[in-house]
Design brief:
The protein is an all-alpha fold. It is elongated and about 60 Å long. It is built from twelve helices and two strands. Strands 1-2 form a two-stranded antiparallel ribbon.
Length: 257
């Protein structure tokens, strides 16, 4: 077996060398890439199989969590996620607790914060308080930008997620770096959740009004930037009741105190 492998490697090297002489270095590198692509694909498939088997054992057979990989990408399919995110999505709060004890932290997950926030958006509202309690018990959101939770709540029209964000310590007046989101490239760099909520407001959608009311409930402060975003919005009709209700809410908050 060893000799056969050596012969295969020698043949490949010889083929690359000849290709370099005949077609140039760039072609040789390209050919080498084609030659090794099947091997890379096979290795990637094996890694996916190992990951899938590991996850199945953790969730179904109570396999101990591998501590050194707790914040590594653990899901081979879909958009990828760390073990904590997967446990949240599956409503396995027993695994959530074990993952947190093992050192799972959203700020350290190698896939970034997006997979954690997607898991939050997919969580049933009635399960969010329990999840908030676990995250708080293990100080799991230390170093995590909690304002992004409020952003996700606004974008998903989830008042319950705003409640969750406040439970874990988010401040509804903290500006968010919105330049990282493609649809906000032309807006000022940092904006408050209230600015984003008003910008995302859609006429005839009461859910967006509830988001704005919820943000004010938690102490959002009216500022002049709201005037700017309002001036850019267009209502299909000034008589639309939700549009008028939005203006009434904002006017009342502007004139408080």
């Amino acid at each position: 077996m060893f000799l056969e492998n050596r012969k295969s490697v020698f043949k490949l090297c010889t083929f690359i060398a000849i290709s370099s002489l005949l077609y140039g270095c760039e072609s040789a590198v390209l050919i080498m890439g084609f030659a090794t692509a099947p091997a890379r694909t096979e290795m990637a498939n094996r890694e996916r199989q190992v990951l899938d088997s590991y996850l199945d054992d953790v969730f179904e057979k109570d396999r101990p969590i591998i501590l050194r990989t707790i914040n590594h990408k653990a899901e081979s399919g879909g958009y990828g996620a760390c073990l904590l995110d997967i446990a949240i999505r599956r409503k396995r709060f027993d695994i959530v607790r074990k993952a947190l004890i093992a050192g799972a932290r959203p700020s350290k997950c190698e896939t970034g914060s997006s997979t954690f926030r997607i898991a939050l958006v997919q969580t049933e509202p009635q399960d969010l308080p329990q999840l908030a309690g676990l995250l708080n018990d293990y100080k799991a959101l230390t170093g995590f930008n909690k304002s992004l939770i409020i952003y996700s709540a606004i974008m998903s029209n989830s008042p319950a997620l705003i409640d969750f964000g406040v439970l874990v310590g988010a401040d509804v007046n903290n500006p968010i770096d919105i330049y990282q989101f493609p649809s906000y490239k032309r807006d000022p760099l940092f904006q408050t959740p209230l600015y984003i909520a008003v910008r995302e407001y859609q006429p005839r959608q009461n859910s967006t009004l509830k988001i704005i009311e919820k943000i004010f409930k938690y102490g959002a402060k009216y500022d002049d930037s709201i005037e700017i975003v309002l001036s850019k919005k267009k209502s299909s009709s000034d008589k639309d009741p939700t549009w008028q209700e939005l203006n009434d809410i904002l006017y009342a908050e502007k004139n408080k105190g």
